[in-house]
User: Which sequence fits this backbone?
């Protein structure tokens, strides 16, 4: 009997079950995020821990994709959460919390880029003493590898691949975030994956040499 | 390398680079600020009030412009045009009481002469005499004393009156008929062609060609249609008179 039942489970049943499971997880995660935001709105900072744990990867991915600089992305990330706490009272329950935080992050990054374009840039690699104990090599440990993988990708391609692969966002969510049609996002993602794969293989070949 | 390996590679690199800023965010002790929200209804009401106020101000501006600028010039009771030589054209607008409401220049040459007349209370015949003297004097100065005497036909004077009011037309023509007397006493040297009578429609058509009504009426005697006016508009009144005379002579020969 048990064997019969086992045989009756088809491939589509498995797919449908896994879909229900992932939908359930997503809804649970969203309701927990909203609970934490409600705590923050009431002035309880303990809600921030859960929010940070659930969204820090997406926020860092979005910031690094736009800013191309780990140090700036770190500053943007900090500013994003400070600004989010300050403005969380404006969050409407029922809308997407991750989208809300990513929108705050994107606005901050774009403002930073605008501000940076007006500032005079200085190459600190030639003036190491000005940087104190912070050295260029330290800043490039992980981000250098990322930059090597994503070299030659356009800004849109960087943003889509990082939000998808590292941020774990769905294509639909990325499309809503960068305000582009779903088809365009899928096309950008496929192009980005192909380019990144070529970069990765070239890097491996260089390492072997 | 397959997609899975690539994603693992990206994830490992990003994990190595991701900073932990939670402690710094908490140290900054951000305060939750009160939400500034406006209900949709009140925002809509605000927009409507703004649009209504804007529309009212615009309507008031249009209304004021109609009465202060458009109406006085749009329909004068009569318009007398003055064309002298090749470059002096002006228009005198009259009220129903034969009072001058405005004098404006049509050509650049007549502009300084007309400006000198601003603010003066003049009768129609005096205004025409002043314009004639002013233009003749200006021409004299510009040509270093050569007062168009070598080509007298180019200093022809044309006066015209455009009005739909028959009584007013009769009165204006009567007043302008005495202009030859004042011409005799003036410094101007030239030929007086006479006064042309036009309708206000002719005046409007002349405006489209940037011509005075008198010049337009003269050209229309030569050009059979309005579209052919362009070919003649740069000729002086004297030359137009010559053309007209040639045309009339040719027609008379054909008739014989």
Assistant:
């Amino acid at each position: 009997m048990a064997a019969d039942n086992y045989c009756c489970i088809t491939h589509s049943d498995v797919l449908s079950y896994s879909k229900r499971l992932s939908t359930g997880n997503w809804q649970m995660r969203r309701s927990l995020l909203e609970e934490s935001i409600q705590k923050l709105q009431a002035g309880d900072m303990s809600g921030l821990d859960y929010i940070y744990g659930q969204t820090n990867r997406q926020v860092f991915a979005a910031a690094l994709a736009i800013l191309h600089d780990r140090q700036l992305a770190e500053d943007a990330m900090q500013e994003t959460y400070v600004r989010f706490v300050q403005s969380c009272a404006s969050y409407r329950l029922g809308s997407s919390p991750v989208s809300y935080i990513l929108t705050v992050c994107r606005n901050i990054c774009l403002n930073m880029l605008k501000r940076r374009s007006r500032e005079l840039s200085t190459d600190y690699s030639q003036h190491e003493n000005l940087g104190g104990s912070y050295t260029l090599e330290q800043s490039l440990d992980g981000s250098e590898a990322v930059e090597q993988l994503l070299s030659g990708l356009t800004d849109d391609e960087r943003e889509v691949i990082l939000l998808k692969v590292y941020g774990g966002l769905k294509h639909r969510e990325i499309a809503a975030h960068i305000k582009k049609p779903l088809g365009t996002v899928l096309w950008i993602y496929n192009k980005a994956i192909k380019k990144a794969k070529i970069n990765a293989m070239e890097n491996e070949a260089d390492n072997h040499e | 390398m397959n997609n899975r390996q690539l994603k693992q590679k990206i994830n490992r690199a990003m994990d190595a680079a991701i900073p932990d800023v939670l402690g710094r965010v908490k140290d900054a002790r951000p305060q939750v600020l009160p939400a500034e929200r406006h209900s949709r209804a009140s925002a809509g009401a605000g927009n409507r009030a703004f649009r209504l106020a804007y529309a009212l101000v615009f309507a008031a501006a249009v209304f004021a412009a109609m009465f202060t600028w458009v109406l006085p010039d749009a329909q004068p009771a009569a318009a007398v045009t003055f064309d002298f030589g090749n470059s002096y054209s002006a228009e005198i607008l009259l009220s129903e009481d034969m009072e001058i409401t405005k004098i404006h220049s049509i050509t650049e040459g007549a502009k300084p002469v007309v400006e000198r007349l601003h603010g003066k209370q003049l009768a129609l015949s005096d205004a025409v005499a002043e314009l004639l003297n002013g233009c003749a004097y200006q021409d004299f100065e510009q040509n270093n004393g050569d007062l168009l005497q070598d080509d007298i036909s180019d200093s022809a004077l044309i006066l015209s009156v455009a009005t739909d009011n028959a009584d007013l037309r009769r009165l204006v023509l009567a007043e302008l008929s005495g202009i030859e007397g004042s011409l005799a006493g003036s410094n101007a040297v030239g030929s007086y062609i006479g006064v042309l009578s036009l309708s206000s429609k002719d005046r409007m058509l002349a405006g489209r060609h940037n011509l005075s009504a008198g010049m337009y009426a003269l050209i229309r005697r030569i050009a059979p249609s309005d579209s052919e006016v362009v070919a003649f508009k740069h000729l002086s009144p004297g030359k137009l008179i010559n053309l007209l005379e040639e045309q009339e002579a040719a027609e008379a020969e054909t008739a014989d």
